[in-house]
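Board work, copied verbatim: Ldh family oxidoreductase
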Amino acid sequence: MSVCYPARELQQFASTLFQRVGLAEERADIMAGVFLQADLLGFTTHGLQRVVSNLEWLQSGESRISGEPLVLSDRGNCFNWDAQYLPGPWVLTKAIEQALQRIPEWGVVTASIRRSQHIACLAAYLPQIIEAGYVAILTCSTPGENTVSPQGGLDPLFSANPLAFAAPAGDYPLLFDISMSVTAGAYVARAKREKRNMPSICLKGSDGKLSDDPQVFEQGGSILPLGGADHGYKGAALSAMLEVLSMALGGYGRADESAREDKEANSVFLQVIDPQAFGPRADFLRQAVALSGLWEQNRSEDANPVRVPGQRAWAMRTRQLREGVELYPSIMRDLQPWAEKLQVGLPAVMPRG
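↓ predict structure ↓
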């Protein structure tokens, strides 16, 4: 029998943990809400699993408890912030709030953020933008991280460089959150922890040999770029593009020696688009809904329907909000010592068969 938790209970639980290490209630609620959204959508490696690392950063001072981002430039329709190591989920949520306030005037709003502490799951920020009727493009990179090798290279160069996109498209949005590597580092870490190999050959040793053993990555190897051993030049090119958008536009990244010490700090690129800035909303929806419908109706290779990006995640979010959130087994085990340490009661459970 699986155990589920009411979404509100989980958010309150995580928020209370953050408050107990000194974060203001409003900021703690935002942080908890972002991590919860990730699990609601099924992104289990970057949801509540990341609460522990964020608690550690707040206690150690790697994340700042208080303060505001420094505004480096602001032209109304585009702005650039230095987060100065404020908690990533809070900073990015505030940037999205700014974009949503400005978009009725500008139609398209673009933001760049440097030195934001890890922002976790990109997809978790998209529901509020979708529900407001807008299109979102979100990406981030990590100047202090080298985990992904370029095609033909032996040395890790890029970070995982995830890209998230969402657009209204009828009953569910077109929505995806993918890294520019064959797999994300969090999945490699989970496989190592659980003493199992990766499900595919997605790693490269420092000697150039391909592998599915997570130990290879720990011993100086790298993750293959999107496209794998045969077509990784495509993923490497996309990685370069996303690092230009997130680092170069923000004016801070791999060229700066100090950035190499930033560890998990992210550089972020955000763009919010109002379809009505280009024409009637009905025309936009007609095209987006048609695309989703044709995708859904595509003949399948097997008994399962063809998967449309966003369909499963949105259905899971709707179901888990109604019936409770089923967490990956290790998440509550990792959170329990912190709950005991900070004297926070564990969330109520909803047993189900």
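The two ends are 5 Å apart (CA to CA).
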